[in-house]
Structures are given as structure tokens and as C-alpha cells.
């Protein structure tokens, strides 16, 4: 059970309210994890700014969800796994590929497998990628600059994953079907 408060737009600190309003417009609701992040205007502001940059990068939304779901599994954040399972399926990832990621395996799609492998390796090796790790990613059709972009996605998802692990936000009803246990 979390000891952190779950804020709404009306109850959040004044500096966090515009960010929560923006998330409300984006998703149609304020995700519970954002309601908890709102306690720190610095954190939620940095989080949303970084995610905006990530979603404006070179990866497709399906590729971003592959990265985010893999990161959530690798970091064992139950809230984020459920949330990004729903988003990955909405972005067209196959159920089989989503299930593979949730089980810690590589998706069948070659490019999604390369994304998943690189981000998982980067997290597990704490950023100490070697030339083999980078070469395998590039061999799947990605560019060297995108290795660094993967790190931006990992940085953004680390915020979510760590807040989820620390604060344990309740899982929204619409994501219960995708509940996950580490």
C-alpha cells in the first residue's frame, strides 16, 4: 500500500496542475502514476518534457511502446507493464510480441526484438554497452544515433518505473486486464 498521495488536477500543487491537465487531454484521464508524481512539480514537469521529446523523436509509436514495455518489465514495475501493454497493443504490436516482452523474451518482429534487446541490455549493464550490443542493433536497420535515443526513452521510463515501484499506484480499471506480476 502506498503512502504517497494520489492527486487530482484540483488537489495537486499549483505548479503540477498544468501538467496534469495536459495529461488529461492526451489520455482522456490522469494516469494514477502522474497523480502521484504531481507531489513534486519538478519531477512531473521533467517527466512530461522528456516524454514529449521522446515521442517527437525518430521512433514510431509502436517502437516506443516496445522500448517502454521492455523497460517496465526489466525494472519490474507492475503498473507500467500493465499500462504499456495496453498502449503497445493499441499501437499495433501483436499479442504474441507483447506477451514475449512481458515474459522477458524477445518479440518475433526483428526490429522490435532489436529495440527490446538493446534497452534491456542497457538497463542490465547500467549503460555499459559494448560494440557487439550496438552492432546487433544497427544490423537490424537502426542508426548509431538511435542507440542514444534509446537511452532517452530509458531515462523517461526509469522515472515512471521507479515512481511505480516506490509509490505503488493503484492500477486503473481499464488496465486490470493487463495486470502483471514480477
TrEMBL record:
<protein>
    <recommendedName>
        <fullName>Carboxymuconolactone decarboxylase-like domain-containing protein</fullName>
    </recommendedName>
</protein>
<feature type="domain" description="Carboxymuconolactone decarboxylase-like">
    <location>
        <begin position="48"/>
        <end position="118"/>
    </location>
</feature>
<dbReference type="InterPro" id="IPR029032">
    <property type="entry name" value="AhpD-like"/>
</dbReference>
<dbReference type="Pfam" id="PF02627">
    <property type="entry name" value="CMD"/>
</dbReference>
<dbReference type="InterPro" id="IPR003779">
    <property type="entry name" value="CMD-like"/>
</dbReference>
